[in-house]
Design brief:
heterodimer, A: 74 residues, mainly alpha, two-stranded antiparallel ribbon, 5 helices, B: 153 residues, elongated
Chain lengths: 74, 153
Protein backbone atom coordinates (compact mmCIF):
# COMPACT_ATOMS: atom_id res chain seq x y z
CA UNK A 1 0.00 0.00 0.00
CA UNK A 2 1.14 3.54 -0.70
CA UNK A 3 2.83 5.38 2.11
CA UNK A 4 0.64 8.34 3.09
CA UNK A 5 2.17 11.69 2.17
CA UNK A 6 3.75 13.62 5.07
CA UNK A 7 1.39 16.54 4.47
CA UNK A 8 -1.30 16.93 7.10
CA UNK A 9 -4.33 19.19 6.90
CA UNK A 10 -7.16 20.64 8.97
CA UNK A 11 -9.71 20.76 6.15
CA UNK A 12 -12.40 18.71 7.87
CA UNK A 13 -12.10 20.78 11.04
CA UNK A 14 -12.17 24.04 9.06
CA UNK A 15 -15.20 22.95 7.07
CA UNK A 16 -17.07 22.33 10.28
CA UNK A 17 -16.01 25.73 11.62
CA UNK A 18 -17.30 27.37 8.44
CA UNK A 19 -20.96 26.52 8.89
CA UNK A 20 -20.49 22.82 8.28
CA UNK A 21 -19.43 23.47 4.70
CA UNK A 22 -19.99 20.33 2.66
CA UNK A 23 -17.24 18.53 0.78
CA UNK A 24 -19.15 19.21 -2.43
CA UNK A 25 -19.27 22.95 -1.73
CA UNK A 26 -15.53 23.05 -1.07
CA UNK A 27 -14.88 20.95 -4.16
CA UNK A 28 -16.89 23.35 -6.29
CA UNK A 29 -15.14 26.36 -4.77
CA UNK A 30 -11.69 25.06 -5.66
CA UNK A 31 -12.56 23.34 -8.94
CA UNK A 32 -12.05 19.67 -8.13
CA UNK A 33 -14.35 16.69 -7.60
CA UNK A 34 -15.82 15.83 -4.21
CA UNK A 35 -13.79 12.60 -4.26
CA UNK A 36 -10.59 14.64 -4.53
CA UNK A 37 -11.56 16.69 -1.46
CA UNK A 38 -12.25 13.42 0.39
CA UNK A 39 -8.88 12.04 -0.76
CA UNK A 40 -7.10 15.17 0.52
CA UNK A 41 -8.90 15.00 3.88
CA UNK A 42 -8.02 11.32 4.27
CA UNK A 43 -4.37 11.98 3.39
CA UNK A 44 -4.60 9.88 0.23
CA UNK A 45 -3.68 12.76 -2.02
CA UNK A 46 -1.50 15.85 -1.64
CA UNK A 47 -3.08 18.73 -3.55
CA UNK A 48 -1.16 20.88 -6.01
CA UNK A 49 0.18 24.17 -4.72
CA UNK A 50 -2.55 25.98 -6.64
CA UNK A 51 -5.33 23.92 -5.05
CA UNK A 52 -3.73 24.28 -1.63
CA UNK A 53 -3.81 28.06 -2.02
CA UNK A 54 -7.41 27.91 -3.23
CA UNK A 55 -8.43 25.85 -0.19
CA UNK A 56 -6.66 28.24 2.20
CA UNK A 57 -8.36 31.21 0.54
CA UNK A 58 -11.80 29.64 0.87
CA UNK A 59 -11.24 29.58 4.63
CA UNK A 60 -9.57 33.01 4.66
CA UNK A 61 -6.36 31.57 6.09
CA UNK A 62 -2.73 31.19 5.15
CA UNK A 63 -1.35 28.02 3.65
CA UNK A 64 0.36 26.88 6.85
CA UNK A 65 -2.82 27.41 8.87
CA UNK A 66 -4.45 24.70 6.75
CA UNK A 67 -1.57 22.40 5.84
CA UNK A 68 1.28 21.04 7.91
CA UNK A 69 4.34 18.90 7.35
CA UNK A 70 4.71 15.76 9.41
CA UNK A 71 8.46 15.14 9.42
CA UNK A 72 9.66 11.54 9.08
CA UNK A 73 11.09 10.53 12.50
CA UNK A 74 13.69 8.29 10.78
CA UNK B 1 -4.13 -0.40 4.77
CA UNK B 2 -5.98 -3.70 4.48
CA UNK B 3 -6.79 -4.85 0.94
CA UNK B 4 -10.54 -4.86 1.57
CA UNK B 5 -10.45 -1.11 2.19
CA UNK B 6 -9.68 -0.56 -1.49
CA UNK B 7 -13.23 -1.67 -2.22
CA UNK B 8 -14.82 0.08 0.78
CA UNK B 9 -16.84 2.83 -0.87
CA UNK B 10 -19.04 4.14 1.97
CA UNK B 11 -16.42 6.53 3.29
CA UNK B 12 -14.88 7.12 -0.11
CA UNK B 13 -17.61 7.12 -2.77
CA UNK B 14 -16.82 6.46 -6.42
CA UNK B 15 -16.49 9.35 -8.83
CA UNK B 16 -17.98 9.28 -12.31
CA UNK B 17 -14.60 8.43 -13.83
CA UNK B 18 -13.98 5.61 -11.38
CA UNK B 19 -17.35 4.10 -12.25
CA UNK B 20 -16.49 4.25 -15.95
CA UNK B 21 -13.14 2.56 -15.21
CA UNK B 22 -14.96 -0.30 -13.47
CA UNK B 23 -17.44 -0.65 -16.33
CA UNK B 24 -14.76 -0.63 -19.03
CA UNK B 25 -12.54 -3.07 -17.11
CA UNK B 26 -15.43 -5.53 -16.77
CA UNK B 27 -16.39 -5.24 -20.47
CA UNK B 28 -12.79 -5.79 -21.57
CA UNK B 29 -12.24 -8.73 -19.20
CA UNK B 30 -15.37 -10.40 -20.59
CA UNK B 31 -14.21 -9.76 -24.18
CA UNK B 32 -10.68 -11.05 -23.49
CA UNK B 33 -12.04 -14.19 -21.80
CA UNK B 34 -14.35 -14.81 -24.76
CA UNK B 35 -11.50 -14.35 -27.26
CA UNK B 36 -9.13 -16.59 -25.31
CA UNK B 37 -11.78 -19.30 -25.10
CA UNK B 38 -12.47 -18.96 -28.84
CA UNK B 39 -8.80 -19.31 -29.77
CA UNK B 40 -8.16 -22.24 -27.43
CA UNK B 41 -11.24 -24.21 -28.51
CA UNK B 42 -10.64 -23.53 -32.24
CA UNK B 43 -6.95 -24.47 -31.92
CA UNK B 44 -7.84 -27.72 -30.15
CA UNK B 45 -10.34 -28.59 -32.85
CA UNK B 46 -7.82 -27.86 -35.64
CA UNK B 47 -4.88 -29.51 -33.89
CA UNK B 48 -2.79 -26.36 -34.50
CA UNK B 49 -2.95 -22.65 -33.71
CA UNK B 50 -6.18 -21.24 -35.13
CA UNK B 51 -5.82 -18.57 -37.85
CA UNK B 52 -6.62 -14.95 -36.95
CA UNK B 53 -10.30 -14.18 -36.40
CA UNK B 54 -10.44 -10.94 -38.36
CA UNK B 55 -14.22 -10.91 -38.12
CA UNK B 56 -14.01 -11.19 -34.36
CA UNK B 57 -11.48 -8.35 -34.13
CA UNK B 58 -13.78 -6.03 -36.12
CA UNK B 59 -16.84 -7.15 -34.12
CA UNK B 60 -14.82 -6.72 -30.90
CA UNK B 61 -14.00 -3.10 -31.75
CA UNK B 62 -17.61 -2.34 -32.71
CA UNK B 63 -19.04 -4.03 -29.61
CA UNK B 64 -16.55 -2.28 -27.31
CA UNK B 65 -17.40 1.11 -28.81
CA UNK B 66 -21.16 0.50 -28.55
CA UNK B 67 -20.99 -0.99 -25.04
CA UNK B 68 -18.74 1.77 -23.72
CA UNK B 69 -20.99 4.45 -25.27
CA UNK B 70 -24.12 2.91 -23.72
CA UNK B 71 -22.47 2.64 -20.32
CA UNK B 72 -21.00 6.16 -20.47
CA UNK B 73 -24.42 7.58 -21.36
CA UNK B 74 -26.10 5.63 -18.55
CA UNK B 75 -23.50 6.79 -16.01
CA UNK B 76 -23.63 10.37 -17.31
CA UNK B 77 -27.41 10.40 -16.90
CA UNK B 78 -27.04 9.31 -13.28
CA UNK B 79 -24.55 12.12 -12.50
CA UNK B 80 -24.71 14.72 -15.30
CA UNK B 81 -22.71 17.44 -13.49
CA UNK B 82 -19.74 15.16 -12.85
CA UNK B 83 -19.89 13.83 -16.40
CA UNK B 84 -19.76 17.36 -17.82
CA UNK B 85 -16.85 18.48 -15.65
CA UNK B 86 -13.32 18.01 -17.01
CA UNK B 87 -10.93 15.70 -15.14
CA UNK B 88 -9.43 17.44 -12.13
CA UNK B 89 -5.74 17.42 -11.13
CA UNK B 90 -5.96 14.14 -9.19
CA UNK B 91 -7.86 12.37 -11.95
CA UNK B 92 -5.31 13.54 -14.53
CA UNK B 93 -2.44 12.17 -12.42
CA UNK B 94 -4.27 8.86 -12.04
CA UNK B 95 -4.88 8.64 -15.81
CA UNK B 96 -1.23 9.45 -16.53
CA UNK B 97 0.19 6.91 -14.05
CA UNK B 98 -2.21 4.15 -15.10
CA UNK B 99 -1.44 4.79 -18.78
CA UNK B 100 2.28 4.68 -18.10
CA UNK B 101 2.19 1.45 -16.06
CA UNK B 102 -0.19 -0.29 -18.46
CA UNK B 103 2.31 0.35 -21.27
CA UNK B 104 4.70 -2.05 -19.52
CA UNK B 105 1.93 -4.61 -19.00
CA UNK B 106 1.23 -4.50 -22.73
CA UNK B 107 4.89 -4.54 -23.77
CA UNK B 108 5.94 -7.67 -21.84
CA UNK B 109 3.54 -10.15 -23.50
CA UNK B 110 4.02 -8.38 -26.87
CA UNK B 111 7.78 -8.96 -26.60
CA UNK B 112 7.06 -12.54 -25.54
CA UNK B 113 4.94 -12.91 -28.69
CA UNK B 114 7.80 -11.64 -30.86
CA UNK B 115 10.20 -14.02 -29.15
CA UNK B 116 7.79 -16.90 -29.70
CA UNK B 117 7.52 -15.99 -33.39
CA UNK B 118 11.30 -15.72 -33.77
CA UNK B 119 11.76 -19.19 -32.27
CA UNK B 120 8.73 -21.04 -33.68
CA UNK B 121 7.71 -19.01 -36.72
CA UNK B 122 4.03 -19.34 -35.83
CA UNK B 123 2.40 -16.23 -37.32
CA UNK B 124 -1.07 -17.20 -36.11
CA UNK B 125 0.14 -17.37 -32.54
CA UNK B 126 1.88 -14.02 -33.01
CA UNK B 127 -1.44 -12.46 -34.05
CA UNK B 128 -3.35 -13.89 -31.07
CA UNK B 129 -0.67 -12.99 -28.54
CA UNK B 130 -0.31 -9.42 -29.81
CA UNK B 131 -4.09 -8.96 -29.82
CA UNK B 132 -4.29 -10.34 -26.27
CA UNK B 133 -1.42 -8.02 -25.26
CA UNK B 134 -3.43 -5.06 -26.49
CA UNK B 135 -6.47 -6.21 -24.54
CA UNK B 136 -4.35 -6.91 -21.46
CA UNK B 137 -2.82 -3.45 -21.67
CA UNK B 138 -6.26 -1.83 -21.77
CA UNK B 139 -7.55 -3.97 -18.89
CA UNK B 140 -4.43 -3.14 -16.87
CA UNK B 141 -4.93 0.58 -17.51
CA UNK B 142 -8.44 0.51 -16.04
CA UNK B 143 -7.34 -1.78 -13.21
CA UNK B 144 -4.50 0.59 -12.27
CA UNK B 145 -6.92 3.50 -12.37
CA UNK B 146 -9.27 1.72 -9.98
CA UNK B 147 -6.42 0.89 -7.58
CA UNK B 148 -5.13 4.48 -7.66
CA UNK B 149 -8.62 5.89 -7.11
CA UNK B 150 -9.10 3.61 -4.10
CA UNK B 151 -5.60 3.50 -2.61
CA UNK B 152 -4.56 7.06 -3.29
CA UNK B 153 -2.09 8.60 -5.71
Amino acid sequence: MAKPPPITNRIRELREQHGAMSQSALAEAIGVTRQTVIAIELGKYSPSLESAFRIARVFGLGLEDVFGWEADPH
Amino acid sequence: MAMYKIFYTKRFPMSFREKTSWAMALILIAAAAFYLNLVISASRALGQTAPPFIGFVIAYIVVIVIASTVIMVALALSSPREADAPADEREKIIADKAGNWSGYVMAVPALGALWHYAVNGDGNMLFHLVFLSLMLGQIAEYAFQIVLYRRGV
